[in-house]
Design brief:
- By secondary structure, this protein is mainly alpha-helical.
- The chain contains 25 helices and eight strands.
Amino acid sequence: MSPAWKRRAAALLPDSPWALAPGLAVLRGYDRKARLKTDLVAGLSVAAVAVPAGLGMGELAGVDPVAGLYATMFPLLAYMLFGSSRQLVVGPEGTLSTLTAVTIAPIAAGDPDLLLPLAAAMALLVGLIQIAAGAMRLGFMAQFLSKPILLGYVNGVAGIIIVGQLGKLLGLDIASNGFFPRLWENVTEVASAHWPTVALSVGLLAAYLLLRRFAPRVPAGLVTVTVAVLASVTLDLEAHGVAVVGDVASGIPLPALPSVGFERLSALVVPAAGMALVGFADAAAITRVYAKKHGYAVEADRELLGLGTANVVAGVTSAVPVGSSGSRTAVNDDAGGASPVVSIVVAAVTAAVALFATALVEPLPSAALGVVIVGAALGLVDFGGVRRLRRVHDTEAGLALAALLGVLALNVLGGLMVAIALSAGVFVYRSIRPHDAVLGSVSDVDGYRDIVHHPKAALVEGMVVYRFDAPLYFPNAQYFTERAMSLADPAPRWFVLNCEAVTYIDASGIEALENLRDELSRQGTVLVVARARADLRRMFDRTGLARDLPVYRSVRAAAEAFRRRGEGSGGGSDAADD
């Protein structure tokens, strides 16, 4: 193994078992007196949503609904051990379940017995790909989700979650997919709504929101689900046309590798790679939101390992692929959960239900589940953040709105690709077209300042001072030359390049400086450098550029030399120590 790979492996898989599994380290120092009650309540609140939601996601994935229940148990424990987020709840979720159904159906070719093994094999492949990506330290990809993009993305996901539950709240069977088609179908079919279901939904949602507003310590989700089950049993709501969860198979699967054959397995590899990226990017977006909210850091590579391990466990326990659940995470955070104990409680409750109590879930009205999910999703909505971005720059707010519309128009998968493309595009654009400035001296301010922000700044006649605020390398080398030449018209006697922000230069940047020097020389202008870093000066020495490129410690020193020499060649230098 090469030294580089050894370092990577050591960083991802350190010697200490507590560092290898952060969840164990947290449990080792767990303060039961301070946290146990809160985490138990949070765990029960999440379980109240996760159990019926898991059944729904299993059905959405095109397999037996109980596979969604399995995906809510053991994968959650795996992420608890290896992930780095304190709030994230993993499990079956809409995007991955939909992609699973679309992928495995044609491969199964009408054989229902193949659907669950194919879904489990998909989860296994997704997990292995994510673990490999974590080992290769590819978590940096999450950094392409900038704050505006992240804000728009999360608001868009919240919108999709809310609209996706409207059919349950209205008692409608919505067939459309996508935010706008589903919203339109709900609006046009509202006259056909099942009014007992609507009344139940309104009452439960009002109670949920009132509890959150006036009794934030009360687990609103758990109370809502409990009241709904009691009302369903007492009033026999199913007999009045209110949809309920219905029959659920019981039992827990034994660990086993899915048996699908090499040909079918190979057909899953490319879709699994796409799902691995989607799952990670979605988790990265959500974990960053909660990490910032609670003042701690998440490790992108550790998230890949946590998600990957969770999916591998899902693959060997007859479950569907898992990812970050925005709604269950919101319920967890809303209830104050912030430790591995929440995951243990959720897994234990789910296992107990799967073994002994599926009958308790069967009378739960679907509308109650929709109410809890909508209430949690409302906590993700932050339109005020877009207004705050406008105080920074209109472009920032525009990026947030673009990401929001991308998610709403193209669903989570397409919207995620739009968000990543927008972030990468902004990065590339700002690398190619960085900020720059013409500088002048200000009488009451030390140093030279941007004349845009200091209109009264004095320019030295016959000399242009230009600052380039970025590394000078291949993406922006041509732009740098064009900008500098445009400022050197009409031709000054000296062109002073302030390099204080040029933290890096490559071969293209050196060539751009040589070309600029030659172009300026042809029109009788001397190129001078000021405030160059030591590493930059060493590069000038190695490339021979320093022989005829004067370097001064400051712009003021260059200006004084210019005044002393008049139209002199500018030979010699006044280099500075760092």
